[in-house]
Structures are given as C-alpha cells and as structure tokens.
C-alpha cells in the first residue's frame, strides 16, 4: 500500500449523488475528511453529511454549494476546504452530466428544449464535463505545490467513461468530453514521478445512478434481461484502490490482489470498470467490448430517435 486515506482530506465535486457520493462515503468510512461540492444534496447525501458533520469528531463531511461552471465558486471550494481541513490530499472533479436534452448536440442552442443560449458561445455540457475538471485540476495542482511535498503523495482522480474509447451518434458531445478527460489524464502522467501528484481516472460502463434512473429517455435503452448494471459502490472501490495501492486487481472486491490479474497504477492510469476491471491503454487498446456492465442493448432506439429529429423540417434552426 503506497498511501492511506486515514487522516487525510479530500474535495469531491458532484458528490450529491451517484458515483461521487459513493466515493465520498467510502473515504469518510476510511477516516478521510471530505468537502462535498455540488448544487444540492439528494436525501441519501444529506444523511451522510449529517452523520459526519460533528465539529468535534473526525473524519468530517462539509457541504459547499457549488456551481462547477463558475470558476469563482471552484476557487471558493478550495478556500473553504483549506479553512475546514487545512492541507488537501485528494481531489476528484467528478461532477458530470450525460447529454440531457437541455444541453445536447441534437437539440442545438436556440431550439426549444435547449437551455444553451443561441449566442452564448458555450455548451453547458462542455463546461460541466470537461472545462470544470480541467480548471479544478489546475487549482488542485496549485494547492498541492503550495502545501505538499514528494513525501506526502497527492491524488487527482477523474471520472472518464467507456465513452472515452467508443463513439456514440446519440451523445457526441458527451463522448468528446470523455475522450478529453482521457487525454488530460495521460498528459499529466509525469507529475507523479516529478512532483508526487498522481493523476488517474476510472472509466465506468453502464452505472446505476440518477444520471440513468431519473431519465426515462435513457433508461429505455437498457434491457434488464441482457444488460448488467455496474453499481456506484463498485466504481468507488476502484477509485479508492487507485489512491491507496500500486497495483489494482481485475476483480471487483478483490482490490488487495488475492485472486485476479494485477494492473500497475501510476500517473496516467485509466481503469475501465465494468463487472471486472482492466487497464485502458493509450495505443492498440481493444476497447471496452461487450463485457458485462458495458452494454446497453437497445441503443438503436436512441439512434432512430436521433434520425427522427434530423428528419424534421428546419432541424437546428432556432425559432425566432
């Protein structure tokens, strides 16, 4: 074990629900303080904050309401974390969305369902899924260099996706953001050796989180008879292993490597998390494949819906 989270402190964006909430909960259970940064907390997240918010006990959880598209609020997130915990050791810029109708390639700015302004010069999906992780990573590195040393390793764990290896006609902006996360993580690999800052990522398959379960338009492509869900807790286990270990097992729940194949961990490592774990290579990678936890069997329904949008007269032309 190269690093223990016991007695450390972390910032996790998007931890009001889903994978990031599971990760925050796991860190707290292991004795790590956590600042949860999100727009709001779902009831299950509020319960965690209530459980770990007692000032006289450690670890502690602190909620900081944060719009991750606002760079001033990202800076404030670090300021509050320093005030509450002092030195920060772990940062997860995990907040993300999965191509909702309100910021979506096939529903362009200015069309009825889009909330992206016609002349706004930006997509909310890009701001949340790619620009926010990039800016948060910059802020994390600045904090680590100011406070840390090579003797106390620092970690930045990103949330990529199997979409970072695939193409998907129905979600091209989302796919682009996850390809971007993979490129960012690999580009920062050498910070591990030179600065003691390890930048890694998980690349989950189809995860049973509110990003899916609260959206019937996406949920319909999953066939419960043929497809398997990966749970947020399973992804969180691998995220913790990326921090605490120099090798990660290919079997979920076997992160001490007793049974499964072993994957070395260093800066730039990206681990795919389906119902098993594997390392995603930069070159000649076979891709996610149809492993359990990676498939959504009825994706053709969304493809047809997409072509249905394109068949409408005047597609992409804003209504005046």
Automatic annotation (TrEMBL):
SUPFAM superfamilies in the cross-refs: NAD(P)-binding Rossmann-fold domains
Keywords: NADP, Oxidoreductase
Top-level lineage group: Eukaryota
PROSITE patterns xrefs: ADH_SHORT
Gene Ontology, cellular component aspect: cytoplasm
UniProt xrefs under Pfam families: adh_short
Alphabetical list of InterPro entries matching this protein: NAD(P)-bd_dom_sf, Sc_DH/Rdtase_CS, SDR_fam
Span of the signal peptide: none
Family note: Belongs to the short-chain dehydrogenases/reductases (SDR) family.
Name of the protein in question: NAD-dependent 15-hydroxyprostaglandin dehydrogenase
UniProt organism field: Aspergillus ibericus CBS 121593
